[in-house]
Amino acid sequence: MLEFFVYLFTVVGIISTAIYVLHRKEINAALKKPQVPQGSTTPATPKAPEDPMTKLTETLEQVVKRVETLEATAKNPKSTGGGGS
């Protein structure tokens, strides 16, 4: 039963992280549209956009590491090194 919740947490975490990262990129892209200064006919030079897939991959790797840690803790809770009796 505990494994079910761990896997459910994993799936929900990965999906929600992916949605959040992609949505955040869309918002940042919309907010950082080049602004045309007054009296100028050329837009400001935009920065090179970051690759959203690279950022998503890094975020998912962090999620996987965290889930692996949680799975190891769930399988052997006494190995966490905390206090206790």
Structure overview:
The chain is mostly helical. 64% of the residues lie in helices and 0% in strands. It is built from two helices and no strands. It has helices spanning 2-31, 52-75. Helix 1 packs antiparallel against helix 2. The two termini are 26 Å apart.
What is the helix fraction of residues, given as a range?
Answer: 55-70%
SS class? mainly alpha
Assembly status: single chain
Spatial separation of the terminal alpha carbons: 26 Å
Which value, in Å, is the CA radius of gyration? 21 Å
Low-confidence stretches: none
Number of strands: 0
% residues in beta strands: under 5%
Topology as a string of helices (H) and strands (E): HH
Overall shape: it is elongated
Average pLDDT level = 77
Biggest sheet: strands, sense, closure?
none
Write the layout of secondary structure elements.
Elements: H1 2-31, H2 52-75
Give a quick rundown of the structure:
The chain is mostly helical and 85 residues long. The protein has 2 helices and no strands. The longest helix is centred in the first third of the chain and has 30 residues, at 2-31.
